[in-house]
Amino acid sequence: MTDIAAMGQTTKDTARFSQGSRMVGLVSRAGLTLAILAVILYGSLANPVFFTAGNFVNVLMSMSIVGIVVVGMTFVLVVGGMADLSVPATIACGAILSLALQPYIGPVPAFAVAVLLAGLTGLVNGVLVGYVGINPIIATLGMGTIVLGIVQAAVGGVIVYGTDPSSADFVKSRILGVPMIAVIFIAIAILGNFVLSRTFWGRWTIATGGNYSAAQASAVPVRAVRAGAFVITAFAAGFSGGLLGLTLQSARPLVGQGYEFSAITAVVVGGVSIMGGFGSIPRAMAGLVFVQLLTNVMVLQGVRTPIQGFVLGLLIAGAVALDIALRKRGVA
Amino acid sequence: MASAASALHMRGIGKVFPGVKALSGVDLAVRFGTVHAIVGDNGAGKSTLMKILSGAYAPTPGTIEVAGTEVRMKRPADAQKLGIRMVHQELNLVPDLTVAENIFLGRMPRRLGFFDRGGMVRRAAAILAELGAAIDPQQRLGDLSISQQQLVEIAKAYAAEPRIIVLDEPTSSLSEHETAALFRILRKMRDAGIAIIYISHRLKEVLDIADEVTVLRDGAMIETRPASGITAAEMIRLMVGREVSNVFPKTPSTIGRQVLRVRNAGDGERFHAISFDVRAGEILGLTGLVGAGRTEVARAIFGLAPLTSGTVEIDGAPVTIGSPAAAARAGIAYVPEDRKGDGIMPAMTVRENISLPVLRRLANRFGRVRRGAERELAGTYVRKFSIVPPDGERRIGLLSGGNQQKAVISRWLATDPKVLILDEPTRGVDVGAKAEIHGIIGQLVANGMAVVMISSELPEIMGVCDRVVVMRDGRASVPLAREGLTEERIMALATGEESAEGEAA
Amino acid sequence: MSAFVSTLLRYRVAVILCLTLAAATLIVPGFASLTTLSLGLDRGSTIGLIAIGLTVLLIAGQIDLSVGSVFAVSGIVGIMLQPALGMGWAALAGVLAGTAARVVNGFLVVALRINSLVATLATMLVFRSVAHWMTASQPIPGNDIMFSITLSEIYLEVFTVCSGLFLVSILALHVWLTRTVAGRNLFAVGSNALSAEASGISAGRIMFLSFVFASTLAGVAGVLQSLATNTGSPVYGSELTVAVIAAVVVGGTRLEGGRGSALGTLGGVLTIAALTTAMEFQSVPAYMQQVASGLILILLVVLDRTVRTGRRKPAAAPVHA
């Protein structure tokens, strides 16, 4: 490109950046908060049960399992890996194995092994996507099917039941009235936020997603960073699967179905760009809260499950379209 | 030939981009049945002019007449309808289709509703034979070499039976034999009445094939003369054309021992047998025309691309650079040419951009990046280099090009490198910032850093560098000393008018 | 790379198919029989019909994850409307539902320029929910159990209506891809959409139409499946996505576009069908079959990737300073 043409290009883009960005950034953040408030308002008005401690605790509990997955999924989206579709499999791995291995090695080691194996899936995903360069959707889809099959084969294809009541009690216990699961979830969310926003690894993740070649040219180990995001997600999903299994004290192979979509919806609605390079855990959490509250309101109002799914799908589509439209205008 | 009809007349063509005047007052008149060459340095405005002709841009202001009728073209399809065909430097081909299909892309012949493969292959074979190209029309395009693909691109334009054909550096990947064949066909086309516009840096070729030559410089048309009335040396003079004034003050520095030594480096594709060395306190200029391979060399030294032969030595010891991280460890830093693409992370702040390569160093045991230390680091550079606005928390995308560039340079200085490679450091930067950046570079060398500066701006190279290496088509001259070096000489080496001793021909 | 290996690679679809068939015949007793052939073909034709559509889409450089959901929705529509419209019209409505689904997808990708992966991810969820919604998550029975018997009737000892339809369609696709201008333009768009546009080919329109085509076929497959089992169920098709993509990839169609062939897909579908039939004969449980599909998909994609980087030619290298 000639000097002159290049100059023209740069000035153009800088202009775009300065005008829109500040305002739209504010709007998008404010928008979500407003939306959450709106849902709370509507819910309280529409149904007396909504604004009760009991209901909120319920919401918190259902949010926690998805929430742990959301923490991991955020990394995947921010690094530009689009989505991890092997989550149903890794959740099932966590759930099934943590229960099935209990009689052999005890509840805590069983849990640990289950999570570890889930993490192994993430490692394979990571290598495939980060180093071999395979499309992340295809890789995670394929790996998911494989892992799910292996896990089922390992337990003979039946539903697994828990045999250790003490672990169930632990998981269902409460600290200061807050369910243990929620406590664990919040802890993981805080840890995730710390890593993403304060450590060099998190910075590398954001940089890799923001501009892969620039990050590479800045000595960031881009391939390892991409792989790492998938490892993190797999661990998170395995962890939440284990918790799920302990809570339900039973695990069928399809136990994890749908979690990947809930997680992606939450992350995308929260304003994390599916193109990568932009987003944070708090944003994903805001999206999660919104989606969960909305679902809760719909459930209380008697809206049927499938319609809820429909609404969620629309939300994803809308949020992604909005993100892309914003991106085009040079606004992150 | 003298009374041939006017094929194309571009009058008073100007083109303004926001903040930049790319072209002004360019007049170009081409007649049917002639070959009209356009020459000019990087940035003279050739591509912009051609983009206007091909319909991709609209002239602001200016008029275009084709075959005597004024036309207004809004998009490339309009130009094509008028019989104007371009052969671009960046190939416009589809790798997964066959050669024949590519030649007839978008115009594939039909027979009874089905696609007439046999007929198409025959016609493609005929065209390729005319061009003297030994290419099988049924072969997959992506499997051909670059030079063969270029021939296919030319065949594609030719097959469309154009009235005006524009060729942009068509011989950059062709061998002598293929070039001769191309010229034969160009002459045939000329004799058949087609108007040919030929853009090239290869002045010998221009004199060979052209009937008329136009020289562009800094967006204006300098002169048009019949090819018989101009020599290569005169063309160079017109292309360069200014007083070599010392716009770039040279900061004195002591030149120390050798820091970087590149021996016989090649990547098997874009450059071969490159050797040079850089010493502490020295600025080595690396220049040449677009496509010569300068950035490729830099990227390979920095670990972004593989080196298939040759060695790189730092402080006398050979190093293997497999990645930018390894390069950073070895003390090599590289500021890329494409600021937007490889340089900045637009959504991140200035501070985050600057600290990127040294994050590990700034982090504590748990990996947490120490904000305080980071801010201090960024702040130091923001102050030292007068980055405006002096706010490390500003999104870097909001800064001007010059300030972004200063930030990118700061990023690498934070790694404490021994040798800094700058690729077009003042491109797209306003005059004030240019001076500031040169000031920064001057300070660095005064403190003993070795600097390699890749630049297309001859005054810059002349003013600032201690020695200059000129590259052409993937090969390099020996480092030339500053004394007695003229812009004309550099241009001559860059275009191949002069062959430097030590250069493998 | 030696000539032998490259020939092997070029005909790898046939090679893989033969290997699979050979292994199956050896391992599974009674595999090599006409009944097996017809069963396998019938089984495979469901995947096959969807795969035809997906092949077209992949060649154009796009992907579609929502085929499974579209499959379910069409089947449900086809069954649900039976009492109202009678079987024939209901079936047609089901197919049209499939087409409509893809109009949505096509719009999202072409008009709004959303990445096809993301768009179809979202529509996958939406359509699946629609399926659940329409049936209240219960499978619904159809009216005419007799028709399903007609559908499973075997002609010429080998073909059923489904498999016949599939074979005819795939041959038609082959002809279209290799012999029509539109077919070649499809490859152009998938290979390098910018260059295609620069040469006057309307990339957007081609992409849109491919989406519509793929979806219509998924709809047809869905309707046929529902008619055959006389049920419309919201969970149908969820396992199909991986199998279909695997079949198409085995058949040599690239995920990045520009390469592919109908015959290749035929080979891929046959391979997967042979594999699943063999496993069924051995009473291998369903989830293991899933593992197999997944494994094949991953292995092939990795193989494809490494082979490509191995012999990558510098096509149209960007000109740097």
What's the structural blueprint in terms of helices and strands?
The complex is a heterotrimer of chains A (332), B (505) and C (321).
Chain A: H1 3-46, H2 53-78, H3 87-100, H4 102-105, H5 107-132, H6 136-154, E1 160-161, H7 165-172, E2 174-175, E3 178-179, H8 180-198, H9 200-210, H10 212-217, H11 222-248, E4 250-251, H12 259-269, H13 281-300, H14 305-328
Antiparallel strand pairs in A: 1-4, 2-3
Helix pairs in contact in A: 1-13, 2-8, 2-11, 2-12, 2-13, 3-5, 3-6, 3-11, 5-6, 5-11, 7-11, 8-9, 9-11, 12-13, 12-14
Chain B: E1 6-17, E2 20-31, E3 35-40, H1 46-53, E4 63-66, E5 69-71, H2 76-81, E6 84-87, H3 99-103, E7 110-111, E8 114-115, H4 117-130, H5 146-159, E9 164-168, H6 176-191, E10 195-199, H7 203-209, E11 212-217, E12 220-226, H8 232-240, E13 258-266, E14 274-279, E15 283-288, H9 294-302, E16 309-314, E17 317-319, H10 324-330, E18 332-335, H11 339-343, H12 350-355, H13 359-362, H14 371-384, H15 401-413, E19 419-423, H16 431-446, E20 450-454, H17 458-464, E21 467-472, E22 475-476, E23 480-481, H18 487-495
Parallel strand pairs in B: 3-10, 3-11, 6-9, 9-10, 15-20, 15-21, 18-19, 19-20
Antiparallel strand pairs in B: 1-2, 1-4, 4-5, 7-8, 11-12, 13-14, 13-16, 16-17, 21-22, 21-23
Chain C: H1 3-10, H2 12-27, H3 34-59, H4 67-80, H5 82-111, H6 116-135, E1 140-141, H7 145-151, H8 161-179, H9 181-191, H10 193-198, H11 203-229, E2 231-232, H12 240-250, H13 262-281, H14 286-310
Antiparallel strand pairs in C: 1-2
Helix pairs in contact in C: 2-13, 3-8, 3-11, 3-12, 3-13, 4-5, 4-6, 4-11, 5-6, 5-11, 7-11, 8-9, 8-13, 12-13, 12-14, 13-14
Concise structural overview:
With 505 residues, chain B is an alpha/beta fold. Chain B is 33% helix and 24% strand.
Q: Please state the CA-atom Rg of chain B, rounded to the nearest Å.
A: 25 Å
Low-confidence stretches of chain C: 311-321
Return the CATH topology of the largest domain in chain B: Rossmann fold
Strand order of the largest sheet of chain C: 1-2
CATH architecture of the largest domain in chain B: 3-Layer(aba) Sandwich
Number of domains of chain B: 3
* Structural class by sheet pairing and helices of chain C: mainly alpha
How would you characterize the largest beta sheet of chain B? 7 strands, mixed
Helix content of chain C: over 70%
Give the CATH superfamily of the largest domain in chain B.
P-loop containing nucleotide triphosphate hydrolases
Given the structure, what is the number of helices of chain C? 14
Rg over C-alpha atoms of chain C, rounded to the nearest angstrom: 20 Å
Q: Alpha-carbon distance between the termini of chain C? A: 33 Å
DSSP helix fraction of chain B: 25-40%
Which series of helices and strands of chain C comes N to C?
Answer: HHHHHHEHHHHHEHHH
Largest inter-chain contact set: A-B, 43 and 57 residues
Q: Outline the biggest β-sheet of chain C.
A: 2 strands, antiparallel
